[in-house]
Amino acid sequence: MPISWELGEPIAVRTLHRGDEPVTVEIGSPQSYLESEDYFCPFRISGKELLEEGYTVGVDSVQALTLTLARIGDVLAASGDAFTFVGSSDLGFPRTAR
Asked: How many angstroms separate the CA atoms of 24 and 89, rounded?
């Protein structure tokens, strides 16, 4: 079933830096499908331009949120850019791909 989603009011926001450029990571609230027990969790990563936006799906809201955090970590790592968070290369997002 395709999902029609909007980020809405973020439940969490983190500002990273790519050099001097701020990059904003926004995470939306996990939401249930209308006709399913599954949940999806939207996210957006943006700087001067949109880097990525989308969602992940989980069997409940916790799994959807956890998968979104890992997806964000994967997207940032795959970009090849050097991001920092409060001066550290540890951005605080888990990764599924190594």
From this structure: 15
pLDDT for the residue 8: 85
Q: Cα dist. 35→2, 3, 61, 87 in Å? A: 11, 11, 15, 44
- Average pLDDT across the chain, whole number: 90
Domain that holds residue 17: 13-80
* Predicted structure pTM score: 0.89
Which residue would you say has higher pLDDT here, 89 or 6?
Answer: 89
Q: Is residue 18 part of a domain?
A: yes
- C-alpha span between 92 and 74 (Å, rounded): 12
Domain count, the chain: 1
Query: Is 58 part of any domain?
Result: yes
User: For 29-80, what is each residue's pLDDT tens digit?
Assistant: 999 876 788 999 999 999 988 889 999 999 999 999 999 999 999 999 999 9
